[in-house]
Amino acid sequence: MFLLDTNVISDMAKKQPNPGVIEKIKKHQHEISTAAPVWHELQFGCFRLPFSKQRNYLESFLENVIRQNIDILPYEEKAAQWHALNRARLSAEGKTPSFVDGQIAGIAYTNGLILVTRNMSDFRAFPDLQIRNWHRSV
């Protein structure tokens, strides 16, 4: 099972999405989910746009493609505890990863999912988190 990060879902909405990403999504269509913080990032990005054809397209894409076809997993107690432990550890090491990235990592880890992202470096500091970049592989 895979948890899709914001940049993977965003790629799907492009006029010319990465063919490798689309191929992997089709191949694993019954094994993918995303996280509530990713859903927030996607909606926030859309709602910041002025009313336009692009915004209408993105609102429709998010509602009719993503929300209707991909499970959105919550940030719950186990993920919050894992996130807090790792955030404290990283803080002691002088590292400050994005709070939202920590939430996403926590959801992926505690649900036993492989996190799929283009931004591998954002998640490498989290131990035992499996990450993949479908933008590089076909």
What does this 3D model show about the protein?
The chain has 138 residues and is of the alpha/beta class. It has a single domain (2-132), classed as Rossmann fold, CATH 3.40.50. It is 53% helix and 11% strand. The chain is built from six helices and five strands, in the order βααβααβααββ. It has helices at 6-12, 19-27, 36-47, 53-69, 77-92, 99-110; strands at 2-4, 32-35, 71-73, 114-116, 131-132. Strands 3-2-1-4-5 form a five-stranded parallel beta sheet, sandwiched between helices. Helix 3 packs antiparallel against helix 4 and helix 5 (77-92) crosses helix 6. It is globular and about 45 Å long.
List the helices and strands and how they pair.
Elements (H helix, E strand, L loop, with lengths): L1 E3 L1 H7 L6 H9 L4 E4 H12 L5 H17 L1 E3 L3 H16 L6 H12 L3 E3 L14 E2 L6
Parallel strand pairs: 1-2, 1-4, 2-3, 4-5
